[in-house]
Design brief:
Blueprint (H helix, E strand, L loop, with lengths): L44 E7 L18 H9 L1 E3 L2 E2 L5 H10 L3 H4 L7 E2 L7 H7 L3 E5 L17 E3 L17 H13 L10 E7 L12 H4 L4 H22 L6 E7 L4 E2 L5 E2 L6 H4 E2 L1 E4 L8 E3 L3 E2 L3 H8 L14 H4 L9 E5 L1 H6 L4 E6 L2 E5 L4 E4 L15 H18 L6 E2 L4 H8 L23 H15 L3 H14 L4 H13 L3 H14 L4 H13 L3 H14 L4 H13 L3 H14 L4 H13 L3 H14 L4 H14 L2 H14 L3 H13 L3 H13 L6 H18 L1
Helix pairs in contact: 5-7, 14-15, 15-16, 16-17, 16-18, 17-18, 18-19, 18-20, 19-20, 20-21, 21-22, 22-23, 23-24, 24-25, 24-26, 25-26, 26-27, 27-28
């Protein structure tokens, strides 16, 4: 995907399917009279490695004897280890937004996974470095940081190619660490990597230590007693592969490396399993290692409290670039170099309880030795005397709580009206993909209002909900359904109770039960848009298009800007043979999100299916101009050109798609177009490339290609 400045696009599930037929500032040395060797660009490469869901205390370099993390440990010995680093929020997307912008969530406006988009008004680290001549690339491991949520801003290459899922079916929303490391290595070896000229900024994101903990062999056997440690060990191996590739190419000594957790994980402490609900240190204390050969000393350990918001200004400072004014973070370079400094106040928050459970959000501040959590029942902990956060001093130390409360309010006031993240409802496809990552209890997204209940007063619901989630993630659908049914009894006022039960029933192909559950929900909660839209998607799955359309129209009446409802209604109308009306619904969806490329591509498909291929071509051409790095759009445009008989343009479009990312569909499409154009030799060449790696293709398609290749080869003799 292109990383130019724009409002990030959002995928609308339930949409009509789009199917392919086929020179900057020179770095000034920061230490004495150190100079770069002649002919070498003095600017450092920058590698950011984010370790999703990784607790600091589960790495060897942080003191865990049972850990097997030799590569991260070696990185710590080669650089600077920060022993007291805090995430600002225990969730993937908002935490990465803080890393990339240097801003706390109230200022960048992203508070949860999926239901927010980082607004284009914020400048990311990638954008700053790209503007200074850096080549930029990102390789992400989970749908939580898909490009549609805005983190692609500034990246020329953003690899988030996850397989699209279908409601009620397993989805591919994450990739193992070894696959992500391989993608980085391929890029580094390619024209955009080490040989591309000038320094690079690469972000590599690993997601493995995440529920359910299922490390691959041999880590599954070696860490059978603690599979989380096995996941961390496997991820460390991938870190080693990335660093090893840089070393093999002679780049490691010229690369500034930052390795950071985005948030931690709870293992039943204070009831929570996983992360997101509470603001205890298990989910907020993260590893942070900075290695900068020739710029920072090796082997230093810093105990001063720091924040993930400090990463962006640190990278810029160490790269010799100006740090923008107005960031919440500060450069860590002075601390890393050995200068003393006070602990930095750390803002913390989670909106997950409100938006996923209907309870109160939590916000807080870690200052000096204290942690304050603002909640219906406030919490105050002396972290020095009580690191386990077992004694709530909010009443007995009221003066401390009042002072920290004033500091917290000052942070929130300073951010008032600044945050420009876009709150929005999740589509069915997005909800399903996030469910596959363990984020199950969605109750309506950013627009949902919480009941105000303190999460600490809902521990019985939390325990049962977490149990249901674990059953679901581990594939025990019957047990998950039983737990969700109990939740319907416990919290009948929550739309999520009915949605979760219906999804569990649907996965067991008990679709009539799923419909009955959702209908019960709509009867009890008639103003819940999420229940009506889910009911509509269930009807679509069952082929009951008219009922699906009625449910989506009800959703639109409740939420006139619900893009998911418009696109699902378009799907229903297509199924009913009412293509012009379907087009009208797609156009309404585009009016809500005019920069949504997926909606516009679906409109092009609607036009082509209706016979207006020329109009479809115009839509595709506009999309390709706006998103030149999208290989899928290039393929779609090539197919449309082929339908119009413009084979030269079709072949050129397929060639460009292959240059961006070679895929079996691109090879077969260009082979067909080349044959039609009379270039048999080219058709043979592309068929051979197709057959060399037909990953994901059906056996029938492969056999047909083999037969076609034999026929064409015979014709050339």
């Amino acid at each position: 995907m292109t990383g130019r400045k724009r409002r990030p696009v959002l995928l609308a599930a339930g949409a009509v399917a789009v199917v392919a037929a086929a020179a900057g500032i020179v770095f000034l040395a920061r230490r004495g009279d150190e100079k770069a060797p002649a002919g070498r660009d003095p600017r450092p490469n920058v590698l950011l490695i984010t370790l999703d869901t990784t607790r600091a205390d589960r790495l060897g370099c942080y003191g865990r004897a049972a850990a097997r993390t030799p590569h991260l440990d070696a990185l710590a010995r080669a650089g600077v280890l920060f022993r007291n680093a805090y995430a600002q929020v225990p969730l993937t997307l908002p935490s990465h937004c803080s890393i990339m912008t240097g801003l706390v969530p109230p200022r960048h406006g992203v508070h949860n996974n999926g239901s927010y988009v980082l607004g284009p008004g914020h400048t990311t680290l990638a954008e700053i470095l790209a503007g200074r001549g850096y080549r930029t690339a990102a390789f992400v491991a989970s749908f939580s940081v898909d490009s549609r949520f805005g983190l692609d801003q500034g990246f020329a290459h953003y690899d988030d190619s996850f397989q699209a899922g279908q409601p009620f079916k397993p989805v591919n929303s994450e990739r193992r660490a070894d696959a992500v490391a391989a993608l980085f290595s391929a890029w580094l070896d390619g024209p955009g990597g080490a040989s591309g000229g000038g320094p690079f900024f690469a972000w590599v994101h690993f997601f493995d230590p995440h529920l359910p903990y299922r490390p691959p062999a041999p880590y599954d056997r070696e860490f059978a007693a603690d599979p989380y440690d096995g996941e961390v060990a496997f991820m460390d191996e991938a870190v080693g592969a990335v660093l090893g590739r840089l070393r093999a190419k002679g780049l490691l000594d010229r690369t500034l490396v930052v390795a950071a957790g985005d948030h931690g994980e709870a293992f039943g402490e204070k009831v929570e399993t996983g992360h997101g609900v509470f603001l205890y240190d298990g989910t907020l204390r993260v590893p942070l290692i900075v290695s900068a050969p020739g710029r920072l000393p090796a082997g230093r350990s810093v105990g001063t409290r720091v924040r993930l918001t400090d990463i962006a200004p640190t990278v810029l400072d160490l790269a010799g670039l100006p740090v923008p004014e107005g960031l919440d973070g500060e450069s860590l370079a002075p601390l890393a170099a050995g200068k003393s400094g006070p602990d930095r106040d750390a803002y913390i928050e989670t909106f997950y309880p409100r938006e996923n459970y209907g309870w109160s959000e939590l916000v807080g501040l870690v200052s000096e030795k204290w942690k304050l959590v603002r909640a219906p029942r406030p919490e105050l902990y002396d972290l020095a005397a009580d690191p386990g956060e077992t004694r709530n001093l909010a009443t007995s130390a009221g003066s401390v709580a009042a002072e920290l409360g004033r500091r917290l309010e000052a942070v929130l006031r300073s951010a008032a009206g600044i945050g420009s993240g876009s709150g929005r409802a999740l589509t069915a496809e997005e909800e399903e993909r996030l469910r596959s990552l363990g984020y199950v209890n969605f109750s309506g997204g950013a627009s949902g209002a919480g009941s105000g209940a303190d999460p600490k007063d809902k521990l019985d619901v939390l325990r049962l909900s977490q149990l249901a989630e674990v059953h679901e993630l581990e594939g025990r659908a019957d047990e998950a359904a039983a737990a969700y049914a109990r939740l319907v009894e416990l919290v009948p006022e929550s739309p999520a109770s009915y949605v979760n039960l219906a999804l569990a029933q649907a996965r067991m192909k008990r679709f009539d039960q799923a419909v009955a559950t959702l209908r019960l929900g709509t009867e009890r909660l008639p103003d819940s848009a999420i229940l009506h839209v889910r009911l509509g998607h269930t009807y679509l799955l069952l082929g009951r298009a008219a009922e699906a359309l009625a449910a989506m129209d009800r959703t639109i009446a409740l939420e006139p800007n619900n893009v998911d409802a418009y696109t699902a209604a378009a799907s229903a109308l297509e199924a009913l043979g009412r293509r012009p009306e379907a087009r009208a619904y797609l156009e309404k969806a585009i009016a809500v999100e005019p920069e949504n490329k997926f909606l516009r591509a679906n409109l092009a498909m609607n036009l082509a299916s209706g016979g207006d291929v020329a109009a479809a071509v115009k839509v595709y051409e506009a999309l390709v101009a706006e998103f030149p790095g999208d290989h899928v759009l290039r393929q779609h445009l090539g197919v449309a050109y082929g339908v119009l008989g413009d084979l030269a343009k079709a072949i050129a479009s397929f060639e460009r798609a292959i240059a961006i990312k070679p895929t079996p569909s691109a090879y077969i499409n260009i082979a067909v177009a080349s044959k039609r154009a009379g270039d048999t030799a080219a058709a043979v060449r592309y068929l051979r490339l197709y057959l060399a790696d037909p990953k994901g293709e059906s056996q029938a398609a492969v056999r047909a290609a083999e037969a076609e290749l034999r026929a064409l080869e015979s014709s050339l003799k």
